[in-house]
């Protein structure tokens, strides 16, 4: 086999011919030329046989490593004039527009970042974390199923904080497929309004939308899809009560801080997860904290018991009528608790009762939603440090959206072997 044939086969880049090869600063640099004579616009499908001028643009792309070395593809690009995009350097078949990486390299990074943490991705691929964010954005634009917003029936809307200081994303999930189909920075009525703008049928197929008990999303649904039933799923009902419990814990902790014995305050400060986690998931230390709290009794222990009682209402495999009855009893109990946060939580639940019952009747269960939510939260932590909300959103859609990510080695015959 000739060396040039071998090199072309190793690179695996379509539409180019490998030329001069050099090792520079430890990197393998391969100069290539395009096989096609026509010039293509990188932004659209326009192509032409005419160069705009004789100038050539020196360009380089990072490709998959070869033998452990960073590999760069070098090419002098000609210029063309596109009627829509003006004068620009021609597009290449092996890279997405405006990228300094080949498509294969980007696909590898996108696959990896949905499976592994930040440090693993950055050190394995040898790219800055910001670059990973930009790669996610480009890949998701390419692989997201364009039909994902057609014929949606049951959907869920959620807000999630993607960064400190109240930076939020609104996410829409499809309850049938268990995937996230849409997202946008922000969390108000207009944010969700933009989702309805993008729906091909304007929301005519929607039957139910589940959400939290805040007013913003409900308003958008009432305005844009008035036929859809607004549901408050168990996940969000329990959240109202875990928020109440957290408010009580913070008050108890603040009060304990003024005491001479600082150890007590420390116990309450560290108790957050012990109180919020399901009892079955507690670590030994957290279980110990909880036992201490039980011994001391007091308002926080009563609040904890109320939270657990509500969680159990939805945790069991009970029929709708039983759950409804247990919920009535829970609200009465909260009313009598003499804990202001829980009296308020009971009132909130009662006020939104029609939507809660609607969720129960439609079987919008906890398990699946919680699973998706846990996954999103894990990814959001990974997206900390991305430069933009769009990049964080792109990562979530790559990992939880209706997409099939392929490793570059598997684009041929084995689409499923890389899952
Ligand atoms: Zn163009």
TrEMBL record:
Domain Transposase IS204/IS1001/IS1096/IS1165 zinc-finger: 40-85
Domain Transposase IS204/IS1001/IS1096/IS1165 DDE, first and last residues per copy: 155-391
Pfam families found in the cross-reference section: DDE_Tnp_ISL3, HTH_Tnp_ISL3, Zn_ribbon_ISL3
Record-annotated Transposase IS204/IS1001/IS1096/IS1165 helix-turn-helix domain positions: 92-140
Name of the protein in its database record: ISL3 family transposase
Protein's organism: Candidatus Mycolicibacterium alkanivorans
Source lineage: Bacteria, Bacillati, Actinomycetota, Actinomycetes, Mycobacteriales
């Amino acid at each position: 086999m000739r060396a040039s044939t071998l090199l072309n086969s190793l690179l695996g880049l379509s539409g180019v011919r490998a030329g001069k090869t050099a090792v520079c600063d430890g990197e393998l640099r391969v100069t290539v030329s395009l096989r096609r004579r026509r010039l293509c616009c990188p932004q659209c499908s326009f192509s032409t046989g005419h160069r705009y001028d004789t100038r050539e643009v020196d360009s380089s792309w990072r490709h998959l490593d070869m033998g452990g070395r960073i590999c760069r593809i070098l090419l002098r690009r000609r210029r063309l004039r596109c009627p829509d995009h003006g004068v620009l350097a021609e597009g290449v078949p092996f890279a997405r527009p405006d990228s300094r990486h080949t498509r294969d390299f980007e696909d590898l990074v996108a696959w990896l970042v949905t499976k592994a943490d930040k440090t693993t991705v950055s050190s394995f691929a040898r790219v800055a974390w910001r670059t990973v964010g930009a790669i996610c954005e480009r890949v998701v634009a390419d692989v997201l199923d364009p039909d994902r917003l057609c014929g949606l029936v049951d959907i869920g809307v959620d807000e999630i904080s993607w960064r400190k200081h109240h930076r939020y994303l609104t996410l829409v999930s499809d309850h049938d497929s268990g995937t996230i189909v849409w997202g946008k920075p922000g969390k108000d009525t207009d944010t969700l309004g933009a989702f309805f703008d993008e729906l091909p049928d304007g929301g005519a197929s929607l039957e139910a939308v589940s959400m939290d008990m805040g007013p913003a999303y409900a308003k958008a649904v009432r305005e844009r899809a008035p036929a859809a039933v607004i549901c408050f799923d168990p996940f969000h009902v329990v959240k109202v009560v875990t928020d109440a419990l957290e408010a009580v814990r913070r008050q108890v902790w603040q009060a304990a801080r003024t005491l001479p014995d600082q150890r007590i305050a420390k116990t309450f400060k560290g108790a957050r997860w012990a109180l919020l986690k399901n009892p079955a998931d507690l670590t030994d230390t957290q279980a110990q904290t909880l036992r201490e709290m039980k011994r001391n009794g007091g308002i926080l222990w009563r609040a904890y018991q109320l939270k657990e009682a509500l969680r159990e209402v939805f945790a069991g495999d009970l029929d709708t009528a039983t759950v409804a009855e247990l919920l009535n009893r829970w609200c009465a109990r909260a009313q009598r608790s003499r804990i202001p946060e829980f009296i308020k939580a009971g009132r909130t639940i009662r006020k939104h009762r029609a939507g809660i019952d609607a969720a129960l009747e439609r079987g919008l269960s906890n398990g699946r939603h919680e699973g998706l939510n846990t996954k999103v939260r894990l990814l959001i932590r990974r997206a900390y440090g991305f430069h933009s909300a769009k990049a964080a959103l792109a990562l979530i859609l790559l990992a939880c959206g209706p997409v099939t990510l392929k490793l570059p080695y598997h684009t041929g015959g084995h689409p499923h072997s890389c899952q």
